[in-house]
Specification:
four-stranded antiparallel sheet, six-stranded mixed sheet, mainly beta, globular
């Protein structure tokens, strides 16, 4: 008998709490203007392929954008993906983005002194990072989570984050879409 050994991968699903982890943030680019160069990275900490349709990205002050239905935005287990304010890498400092919020309804920007980055799906919190001046962000330098702190709980502490040292295409430092520099 003829046996078909090809199998379709399991279908993707939305992230559950703790499965999508904020792993790197660029809040103050210097290579390009902030309205083009802000971005953050997420890590798929689950063992499932995650679909990001419907993911809400917000802060506590009412700024909010939502990833709309459209082209599939999926992340494999263990993958890193960058979500950008502006999606063209030649214009955003060199970040390759899985999605950008430049043309969707809503607004989102990072305040350089203190702000919140909250990920939700169907009003259920997936991850949140709240930063302030104690986090010691530097202009033109992203902060990334230490590999040992790559969970939705451990990334809440300023001590879990460090400045990235890899130089991006336009001169800022960060590792958007890939493993963070060691701390």
């Amino acid at each position: 008998s003829d046996t078909d050994t090809d199998t379709d991968p399991p279908p993707s699903r939305p992230p559950l709490p703790g499965e999508l982890v904020v792993s790197e943030i660029m809040i103050s680019p210097t290579a390009v203007a902030e309205d083009r160069g802000e971005w953050f990275e997420v890590y798929n900490a689950s063992d499932h392929r995650l679909n990001l349709w419907g993911l809400v990205i917000r802060d506590a002050d009412g700024e909010e954008v939502e990833i709309p239905m459209g082209p599939r935005i999926e992340m494999e287990p263990g993958a890193y993906g960058t979500i950008c304010r502006h999606g063209v890498s030649q214009e955003n400092g060199g970040a390759l983005c899985i999605w950008d919020w430049s043309e969707v309804k809503g607004t989102l920007s990072f305040v350089n002194s203190s702000d919140e980055l909250i990920l939700e799906f169907e009003k259920q919190e997936i991850d949140q990072v709240i930063y302030d001046l104690d986090w010691d962000f530097r202009d033109g330098v992203a902060k990334g989570v230490r590999e040992t702190s790559l969970t939705a709980e451990a990334n809440d502490s300023a001590g879990a984050w460090c400045h990235q040292t890899t130089t991006m295409a336009d001169g800022d430092r960060g590792t958007p879409g890939s493993v963070n520099d060691g701390c």
